[in-house]
Specification:
With about 120 residues, the protein is mostly helical. It has helices at about 1-10, 15-60, 80-115; strands spanning about 65-70, 70-75. The protein contains three helices and two strands. A two-stranded antiparallel ribbon has the order 1-2. The chain is rod-shaped and about 65 Å long. The protein starts with a helix and ends in a 9-residue tail after the last helix.
Length: about 120
């Protein structure tokens, strides 16, 4: 009974509209995956910098370091930079979690679309 209701909800689309929607959904998934990968790399870089600065923080908290803020290189101390970097890294991790959730939802929608319209990619060998 529920499958007949689900099939009734599917709007009839032309072959061209199905192909365009398929391509759009696929591009959106690729875009989200790329952004997630980029942010994961940035979070990893923040982690490497933090591990180095934490060593300096224990030995010499007043040691000067440089930070790029809005394209401007500014001089700060290690004790000033470490909390800001930790906050940035946590923010990046939250954004990654949000994007991962969006990716999962979009992927589920894509699978439903493929199932509803019986879409199977053509392998070009």
């Amino acid at each position: 009974m529920s499958t007949s209701k689900a099939k009734a909800k599917v709007q009839p689309l032309s072959d061209q509209e199905i192909q365009q929607t398929y391509s759009r959904l696929q591009n959106e998934l690729q875009s989200l995956a790329g952004k997630i990968g980029e942010l994961e790399q940035e979070a990893e870089e923040h982690g490497l910098v933090l591990s180095t600065l934490n060593e300096a923080l224990q030995v010499e908290p007043g040691r000067k370091c440089f930070r790029l803020i809005g394209g401007v290189l500014v001089e700060r101390t290690v004790k000033d930079v470490v909390p800001a970097l930790q906050t940035n890294r946590e923010g990046i991790k939250k954004v990654i979690a949000n994007l991962s959730e969006q990716y999962t939802t979009k992927e589920r929608d894509f699978e439903i679309f493929k199932r509803d319209y019986n879409v199977r990619p053509i392998s070009r060998a």
